[in-house]
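can u pls check wat happens w/ 4'-deoxy-4'-aminopyridoxal-5'-phosphate
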Amino acid sequence: MYWEENVRRVVPYVAGEQPQNKNVIKLNTNENPYPPAPEVERVLRELNHDTLRKYPDPDVSELVNVLAKRYGINNEQVFVGIGSDDVLAMSFLTFFNSDKPILFPDITYSFYDVWADLYRIPYECQPLDENFCIRKEDYQKENGGIVIANPNAPTGVYETPGFLEEIIKANPNSVVIIDEAYIDFGGESCVPLIDKYENLLVVQTFSKSRALAGMRIGYAMGSKKLIKYLNDVKFSFNSYTMNTVTIKAGAASVANEEYFRQITGKIIETREHTKKRLSELGFIFPDSKTNFIFAAHKSVPAQEIFDALRENEIYVRHWNKPRIENYMRISIGTDEEMKTVLDFLENYLKER
Ligand code: PMP
């Protein structure tokens, strides 16, 4: 059929499974095992449904204001979107508009190459070293933009702002996006660098550390110029991306800093304990500063362990891709969930 020749064809990103079965211990999409801040529930309970008659605030001012205050930056330095996937997709569309290839690691968030393909942006993957670390000299060549997840996914590997600054400094002619989806689990953010580098965009999300994956809130912080360009594209696409309920719930979440610290602290504690037990069971993994651990067993193939876990209603993530096919990404759940998983692994490895 001729019409099919004009179709924009893409191979879509495959998200982790969302099983209907409530008994599953779900450690496959890096969700937060704790509920969102109690203030979010209050917002939902007290919502006056008549407010839904009207369009939402297209500038998302209420949420932009609280985020700007939280990070000590200007309102004009914050952009909000429907999850960081939306923010990243808008950013690719806005900033990666060159004939030169954009650069990102060979092992990283597997949405980057999908957006690049969708928008016809040329790209060149840069191989991580044998410890899954970035080689900064790979990012010191001509390019049409750079995107780096820090900490990286699915490896969990974290680089310091000082290290990333060398890459940013070496690339004044392209936009550098640092995807900090997992920064709140022990890493130091690059946000303080946005006033120094006009071409630096830092992207974060409410999905992990704020336990609001279902609400879909992401945001970007950068120079006023970058944020203006992003808004120009957003308003050329859809003025009302974020709905009224989400704006209020997001703002309520940011208001409770203490709860945020409490749940992220708890997840870090559980992660450190999980690392210890995984090592004792013969797993190896790069050190993680995220809410997941990317682990391989010294003698048992990942696919076998993945299948055994799945049969027992424990879901983790596994990719049949070069260099990482022997690793599983295990999200950090509650202490109880992790105990069940680790006890299962201990028995499974013993009896196998
Ligand atoms: N960036 C990275 C590195 C991620 O792992 C994820 C989660 N899949 C996202 C961005 C997107 O998260 P969200 O759209 O829920 O904010």
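The chain has a mean pLDDT of 97.
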